Amino acid sequence: MKKLLIVVDMQNDFVTGALGTKEAEKIVPNVKARIERAEKEGWDIWFTKDTHGEDYLKTQEGAKLPVEHCIRGTKGWEIIDELKGYAEHVAEKPSFGSVDLAEAVKTGGYEEAELIGLCTDICVVSNALLIKAVSPELPVAVSKNCCAGVTVKTHEAAIQTMEMCQIEIR
Question: What is the annotated signal peptide range for this record (predicted)?
Answer without folding.
Answer: none
